[in-house]
Automatic annotation (TrEMBL):
Name used for this protein in its record: NADPH:quinone reductase-like Zn-dependent oxidoreductase
Domain Enoyl reductase (ER): 35-346
Pfam families, per database record: ADH_N, ADH_zinc_N_2
Entry-linked CDD domains: MDR1 (cd08267)
Lineage: Bacteria, Bacillati, Actinomycetota, Actinomycetes, Propionibacteriales
Superkingdom field: Bacteria
Stretches for region Disordered: 1-23
Length: 353
């Protein structure tokens, strides 16, 4: 039977010994209001306390993506209404994707022990320590660096769910990925190829080489190519962060094809891209084609499904840049430019050593 560190002793370090006494604080990027990059502050804050079913992770790296931007901005406002915090974030520490070593475990945790290298979805990863539910955590594949592992969980998990769960992908099908150079898109291209699909990726001119390097069979430049030109049709379309009309998506589908709306960066302040996503299932009631939205879930089991592809090198995280913890605002500004190729990683050094 494996001995686990109790949640009552969160100061055990990753070697299994006892770390020097600390004051119970940690460095973190904190936001106490919604707004622009200026709401992100790098300062000391209390280390998280873990519940019986949680793991305390000593963070080595964290991932930054559009979801983190939405949580910073508090937009669309629907996010606030559904429980993320109406006037301010419920959890003031920013960041979700995390990779690091287990520092302590709750009394009900059975899958992880102190010292394990792990990655998953946390309650705030832009910090020296993060609390993670056991069911949202997995063992880190040995071949990945912490920076690579940290940019996997949300984006790769979303891509997997979009292709396999919502999209019901089958080998031999033709797949179109709109937004193929972004976080989710870069994984969707690689996973679709690994699952036996013929993949066409849509991206901007400057990122077409990246999409090709990910394994796409064909690439389209959205500044000059029309994926809905009526000449090519796809069994499955993943619309990631775009905003084409449902009519255009249907025009590019086969008569019984499926379109999965993964996200959208346009639309009103209240629903953003969700408005179009909510209409999609209604349209499906009256046509042979299937249009659906993806409400992705944070699941450690997805990371276990992805492990074989990551370990084999079939799926490789595309890390655009890395930034240290105190430069998260600069990382967010780079994300806002729209020039990111793949993902951004945040590295956390050990200032206490």
């Amino acid at each position: 039977m494996t001995n686990h560190t109790s949640a009552a002793d969160p100061r055990t370090d990753h070697t299994g010994g006892t770390a020097p006494a600390v004051d119970g604080t940690m460095r973190a990027v904190v936001q106490e209001a919604y707004g622009t990059v200026d709401v992100l502050r790098h300062r000391p804050t209390a280390r998280p306390e873990i519940g019986n079913d949680e793991v305390l992770v000593r963070v080595r790296a964290a991932g930054l993506d559009r979801g983190t931007w939405h949580m910073m901005a508090g937009r669309p406002y629907l996010l606030r209404v559904i429980g993320f915090g109406f006037r301010r974030p419920k959890n003031p520490v920013a960041g979700i994707d995390v990779a690091g070593t287990v520092a302590a475990v709750g009394s009900a945790v059975t899958k992880f022990a102190v010292g394990d290298e792990v990655y998953g979805m946390s309650r705030g990863s832009f910090a020296e320590y993060a609390a993670v539910l056991e069911r949202k955590l997995a063992h880190k594949p040995a071949g990945l660096s912490f920076e690579q592992a940290a940019v996997v969980p949300i984006s790769a998990g979303t891509a997997l769910q979009a292709l396999c769960d919502a999209g019901r992908l089958q080998a031999g099908q033709k797949v179109l990925v709109i937004g193929a150079s972004g976080g989710v898109g870069s994984y969707a291209v690689q996973l679709a190829k690994a699952l036996g699909a013929e993949v066409t990726g849509v991206a901007g001119t400057a990122k077409l080489d990246l999409v090709r390097s990910l394994g796409a069979d064909h690439v389209l430049d959205y500044t000059r190519d029309d994926f809905a030109d009526g000449q090519h049709h796809y069994d499955l379309i993943l619309d990631i962060g775009g905003n084409p009309s449902l009519r255009r998506l249907r025009r590019a589908l086969t008569p019984t094809g499926t379109a999965v709306l993964v996200g959208g960066e346009e639309g009103g302040r209240w629903t953003g891209g969700f408005g179009r996503s909510l209409r999609a299932p209604l349209v499906s009631l009256f046509v042979r084609q299937r249009l659906t939205m993806l409400a992705s879930k944070e699941r450690g089991s997805d990371l276990e499904r992805l492990a074989e592809y990551l370990a084999a090198g079939t799926v490789v995280p595309a890390v655009d840049r890395t930034y240290p913890l105190d430069q998260v605002p600069d990382a967010m500004r780079h994300l806002e430019t729209g020039q990111v190729r793949g993902k951004i990683a945040i590295t956390i050094d050990d200032a206490r050593s």
